[in-house]
Amino acid sequence: MKQLIAVFGIVAMTALQTVAAQTGDFEEWLKGFRAEAMAAGIEKSVLDEAFAGVAINQRVYELNENQPEFSRAIWDYLDSAVSETRIEKGRTMLAEHRSLLTQIESAYGVNAEILVAIWGLESSYGRIMGDHDAIAALATLAFEGRRTGYGRSQLMGALKIIQNGYASRDQLRGSWAGAMGHTQFIPTTYLAYAIDHDGDGKRDIWNNLGDVFASTANYLSASKFKSDESWGLEVRLPAGFDYALADASIRKPVVEWAAGGVEGVRGDRLFERFDPNARGRLILPAGAKGPAFLVFGNFGSILKYNRSTAYALAVAMLSERGAGSDHSVVAAWPREDQPLSLEQRKSLQQALKDRGYDPGPVDGIIGAGTKAALRRWQAANGLPADGYASTTVLSALMR
Ligand SMILES: [Ca+2]
């Protein structure tokens, strides 16, 4: 017992010393940042109010340093993101706020169902908006770690929000990364796109649903979202399809996809649903063994909101379900084919390199270079060239 206390004492003291050292540095850093902010036009009174009592947020510091070893499979994400509970609640919210949403839909050209889907995903319809003090969280990110550039620009943005009187100092609460309100705007997005819908002088994305929906619609509209167009649909590919066509850089008119044998997964012909000249791209989020989707410009607008295919698909599915459809994804996800861990992704890149298919740097990031190298290796080995990095392809490569 005595020994345990002694050991615990040492650990505790080390931790305290680290915090003390960090706090000293933080105070020093904050002086420099304040000078910079004043040079950028932020008033001293705003800085005094904003930083009174602000210290490093240890929890934010740790979350920022934590690089996940495993990425989540898209089907696991979609199972929870597009749950029956969220669909039901979305339908209730659509009914409850119908007149406000219709007003905003006609003003901004963004469908009510899309707005409510984003609202449901970002904060579970306002239930979980994050309760971190945004100034402290952003100052922690700006001070040290992997996101100092992001932290600095967002902290400066938060100060401008206070100075302009859009929101009060104490209202600025949100996620550990500084995303705030019902639809999780970061400060620079807020400054550029937040709207005072009810005209009370505040852009209140924390309490006023008119401001929330109008701000979100305004942001999507700036990303070229169009309410009379579709996000896309799940499609069926013909036998012998050239998977090299499912590439982010290949965008073709509906007429060409249809001529190549692509059709709706429920047998619907593309012409009947879309403008034959609308340009779309094909995505295979889980490779050739999983579902395929033809996506249009609106899908790209949703991706600007959150740069994740899984997220954009969840918004698309939720919005369709909200609009009354009972469709879910038809083709089965390859649930046995797990995504790769960081180490496995590096092994895959190294194996491609060893076999003469240069994937670029061996960094565990599956980007365009790795996908292209993987496609070349798959094509040379008589496999569907989908460029999808999974456990199956890794073991085939290692053989
Ligand atoms: Ca307002």
List keywords for this structure.
mainly alpha, Helicase, Ruva Protein, domain 3, 399 residues, Muramoyl-pentapeptide Carboxypeptidase, domain 1, two-stranded antiparallel ribbon
Describe the structure.
With 399 residues, the protein is mainly alpha-helical. Among the domains are: 12-67 and 130-180, Orthogonal Bundle (Helicase, Ruva Protein, domain 3), CATH 1.10.8; 232-295, no CATH class; 342-398, Muramoyl-pentapeptide Carboxypeptidase, domain 1. The chain has helices at 2-39, 44-51, 58-65, 74-81, 84-96, 98-108, 112-123, 134-143, 148-163, 187-193, 209-222, 254-259, 270-273, 297-305, 309-322, 342-354, 368-380, 391-398, and strands at residues 132-133, 173-174, 232-236, 252-253, 263-264, 279-283, 292-295. The chain has a five-stranded antiparallel sheet with strand order 4-6-7-3-5. A two-stranded antiparallel ribbon has the order 1-2. Strand 6 and strand 7 form a beta hairpin. The longest helix has 38 residues, at 2-39. It is globular and about 65 Å long. It starts with a helix and ends with a helix. 37% of the residues are buried. Bound molecules: calcium ion. Calcium ion binds next to loops.
